[in-house]
Amino acid sequence: MPVFFRSKAALFALAAVFIVCSLLVLDVRTLIPPDEGRYAEMAREMLLTGDWITTRLNGIKYFEKPPLHTWMSAVAFTLFGLGDWQARLWNGVCGIGGVFLVAYTGRRVFGERAGLYAALVLGSTLFWAAASQFNSLDLPVAASMALILCALLLAQRDDATAVERRNWMLLCWAGMALSVLTKGLIGVVLPGGVLAIYMLVSGDRAILRRLHLFSGLALLLLIAVPWFLLVGARNPEQPHFFFIHEHWDRFFLKTHHREGPWYYFLVLMLPATIPWLPLLPVALVSARKRVTGRFQPTQMLLVWTVFILFFFSYSSSKLPGYMLPVFPAMALLTGVYLARAPRSMLLLVAGLLAVVGLVGLGCVRIIPHLNTALLLAGFGAALLCGLAAWFAEARGQRVAAVLAVAVGGWLLTQLLMASHEQFGRVKAGRDAALAIRGELRADTPVYSVGTYEQSMTFYMGHTVIPVNYVGELEFGLLQEPGRGIASLDEFYARWRATAAQGQPQYAIIREDLYAEARRQGLPMRERARGSEVVVVSSP
């Protein structure tokens, strides 16, 4: 490794730049519906009501996911106020934390060079870098799974002392608890499946005696169970909905309409792992080799990657973010391989990044809705960094080459995401929401007719009354039907009565239903337009 990167000051400087830049980009985009708006609004309502047990969306019970993400976003709002970057802060922290976990684990288990490379790979892989700036549960659950994986690797390494093994295993069990509180039972099911398969393929049956099962399980239950007991006591309908509908039905049935072919995630891996795609197949194949010692860390990483991809490929519910937990494992394997990879492989990676940049520059003019200047900057950075990496590797400067690819991949991802803002702002209905926000009081009725705009409620700072709509609010509306209006006729009658009294009221109406409301002669004044919706008030 070059003398520069042996300096702690240089590594700290690199880490500081990464942290600062990763936090700064949290505030460059509007919260995009549905996910970003949904989770920001849930945290806003938690902070407003002070109820940290019963999670709600639009004031309605919402039990699809556990509360950890909402808790952390509500904490961010408490400390720093309401805003876009505050809503994304937990994701940003998880993304950064995952990179440093991988760096530390790689260094301790595989060597200093492998740890540095693994961190650079993870931090710049398109899907991880993008998810770290996107307010959803996928990256936090991936970060908690990374904690499980890294703590397990550190605990089980052959040179770990008894105290180290105990402490790292307890952290591993705590990571499982955090994963359960983030996404549910996959926090236990996935690590359990990985462990079972690892024992079969590696022959390391003795690992069971090194897991600190009793103390670890007690810690997991102590952290994860209290919320489930409290929310179930307050809301008896929650356990069946969460454990049956959101786990069993989601995995085995197609009721969520998120199915895809078995190769769904394999195809998605092609763009998601840019710029490191050429290295992944070779790194995975190399992981099959048995190494000296009792514990087989590369085999554990291989099993982790393959089993989790297979698990979600078999599931009837598929979304891109489901595959994020495999990225820390793949980054570690790639870091190990990069430490000894032939020059031709890194030249291939650098060439791919340069080609992506060159092709992107040629296609900028035909890409609709995105900011052309930012697209040019992103693809230009990819081209320049790819060329810089090529020349660095050709001169035998491996670390500089890997760093150049990482910088190019990170810049490409962030500039592509930022280029979406002009379209995303309209999609979120931010300007339409802000047009009436100053006029709203806590008791002002705001109707949402035929739709529920996930981001607009957050930007208005006000919940809405759903009309002729259930969507993902269906379960909560069944429990609290008075929070919605089932029919358009009932809405028309209520609107006319309030208008006759001269009281302020507002509605967000789907465009086709707005035309129908006008035909019905509903007294209203158009105030703003969003993406396929119209905002109106009483005249």
From TrEMBL:
InterPro entries: Arnt_C, LipidA_mod_glycosyltrf_83, RgtA/B/C-like. Residues 434-537 form the Aminoarabinose transferase C-terminal domain. The keyword Lyase does not apply. Its main location: membrane. The chain crosses the membrane at residues 89-107, 113-130, 168-201, 213-233, 262-287, 299-316, 322-339, 346-367, 373-392, 399-417. Keywords: Cell membrane, Glycosyltransferase, Membrane, Transferase, Transmembrane, Transmembrane helix. It comes from the Bacteria. It is found in: Cell membrane. It is a multi-pass membrane protein. Residues 65-227 form the Glycosyltransferase RgtA/B/C/D-like domain. This is Phospholipid carrier-dependent glycosyltransferase. It comes from Duganella lactea. The lineage of its organism: Bacteria, Pseudomonadati, Pseudomonadota, Betaproteobacteria, Burkholderiales.
